[in-house]
Structures are given as C-alpha cells and as structure tokens.
Write a structure and sequence with these properties.
This protein has helices at about 5-15, 30-35, 50-60, 80-90, 110-125, 145-155, 185-190, 210-220, 225-230, 230-245; strands at about 20-25, 40-45, 70-75, 95-100, 130-140, 195-200, 205, 255, 260-265. It contains 10 helices and 9 strands. The strands form 2 sheets. The chain has a 7-stranded mixed beta sheet with strand order 3-2-1-4-5-9-6, with helices on both faces. The protein has a two-stranded antiparallel ribbon with strand order 7-8. α2 links the parallel β1 and β2 (about 40-45). Helix content is about 40%, strand content about 20%. The two termini are about 30 Å apart. The chain has about 270 residues and is of the alpha/beta class. InterPro entries: Methyltransf_11, SAM-dependent_MTases_sf. One of its GO terms (molecular function) is S-adenosylmethionine-dependent methyltransferase activity. This is Methyltransferase type 11 domain-containing protein. Pfam families: Methyltransf_11.
Length: about 270
C-alpha cells in the first residue's frame, strides 16, 4: 500500500547506483527491495524477527520478482545493530529512511515514543555522510485518511492496556495514534536534523474483499494491543463494522489516504 510513498521519495532523492541506504523499521523489506532494484546498496533493521525473515526471502534470488539476488545486510534492532556498524565501516550511508508511519510507533506514552524515535534517528544520522538525507514519513491529516477511522477502533479497544495500574508489557504493543501537523518537524528537531523539503503522496488502501481487508489491517500490528486487551474475535468484528462504509458494490474495499514525508539533512 505504501509503494507510491517509497517511489516518490526515491525519485526525489535519485536513489540508484552509488546510494547506500539504511532502512529503519524495514519490516518485510519491500522498500529495501525497491531501492535495491534501482541499484542501491541496502541495509535494514527491524524489531520483528518474523518480518526480517520475510525481508531476507524478498532479497534473495528466490524471493525477488525478477529472480535476481539483492545483496543486503539485515539485522534485529535499531541503528545500534551489528549489521549497521558493519555496513558503516565500508562507507557512510547516503540515505536513511524511517518509512514506518510515526503513528505506528505509538506504543507506550507519546513522550517516551518520540524520545526513543529521536534517539534512534540521531544515532542513524551519525553514520550518514555529511549532507546525507534522512527521510521521515507519517500519516497525513486524519480527514484525508479514510483508514484512520478504522485504526481508531484498535486504539479505542486498546485503551485498557494504557490505563494507570495496568501491567506493562516489555516491549509494549504497538498502538495507533494520529499524526499531528508538525509531528515530523518536531521529531527532526529533537534528533538534531535540518529539514530540507517535504511532500504528500496518495496511498490508497485497496482490498479484493472484506476478509482480505481485515487480514491486511491486522498484519500491520496496529491492532495487537486491542487483541490483547479484548480478544481477536471482537477485534475482527469491530474492524469489519468500521470497514463497511468503504466496501463497494462489487465487494472490494477502497480507502483513500494521504501520507506525508519530510526530507532532512544530517
């Protein structure tokens, strides 16, 4: 669903041969694969080992759409991961991306989340060549993101887990929250980064049918906290109800969204 975002950023930064790219929160590796297909040397980190396994598959000959291997360094964690240090010893990164929407980092208190994200970005920027690009991305205004109506369901159901006195999990489950107008700029300032342009990209979420839409949204991990606070059956039921206004006569589900990106310089 976020391919238009990846492509817009890579086109603007002319990502290709000669680019050394670090993907923070690289997930299942689609953004890395697109960058590697453009000729970039890629390195990615994520906190979910299962998603990293998918990224490894995608970046091998068997997993690549054209059957070509895409050499990449992948590691568990953040910019402190050994694979990042190894990649940085070869040469400094020229581009760092944080494509995971900031709202997906909303586990725990917002203040703690922003502080941790800023520290991670500052650490990643330290391994970037002078003037290198650091890209942040997030959801656009809620009124322009139809999916935000559905994601609010998960945030509401997860409220008990965030109540005072509730037993905290380590790490805490991911929980959606909307992005404010200046969230990207505020995060960049905390990380000591200098903004150097921004843009908005249409990223509609489209699914073949209701079941595909529910499964696709659950795969984002943004409903994990809701499932733990209630139960999976209840979460699926409420997601389905929230999706009904977006289901077309032919059964497909379509939700227009806008994502925003901010380009900074290290």
């Amino acid at each position: 669903m976020l391919v238009p975002l990846y492509e817009a950023v890579y086109e603007r930064l002319d990502v290709g041969a000669g680019t050394r790219l670090l993907g923070l929160g690289c997930g299942s590796g689609l953004a890395l694969l697109i960058a590697a297909a453009r000729g970039a040397a890629v390195c990615g980190v994520d906190t979910d080992e299962r998603r990293l396994d998918l990224a490894r598959e995608r970046l091998t000959a068997a997993g690549a759409p054209d059957g070509r291997a895409r050499p990449a360094r992948l590691g568990l964690g953040g910019p402190e991961s050994p694979c990042v240090r190894e990649a940085a010893t070869d040469a400094a990164f020229t581009v760092v991306t944080a494509f995971e929407p900031l709202s997906a980092l909303g586990a725990g208190s917002p203040g703690a989340t922003v502080s941790a994200a800023a520290s991670a970005l500052a650490a990643a920027a330290a391994g970037t060549e002078r003037g290198g690009a650091v890209v942040l991305a997030g959801w656009g205004p809620p009124e322009r993101c139809a999916t935000s109506e559905v994601l609010r369901v998960g945030a509401r159901l997860a409220d008990p887990m965030c109540a005072p006195g509730y037993r905290r999990e380590v790490p805490p489950p991911t929980r959606w929250r909307p992005c404010g107008r200046d969230d990207l700029e505020d995060l960049a300032a905390r990380a000591g980064l200098r903004p150097d342009g921004s843009g908005r990209v249409a990223c509609p979420f489209g699914y073949a049918d209701m079941d595909s839409a529910v499964r696709g949204l659950l795969s984002t991990r943004l409903f994990d906290a809701a499932e733990r606070a209630t139960d999976p059956t209840q979460v699926r039921k409420e997601i389905t109800e929230a999706l009904h206004p977006h289901q077309r006569a032919d059964g497909t589900v379509w939700m227009p969204n806008v994502f925003r990106y901010l380009i900074c310089r290290a």
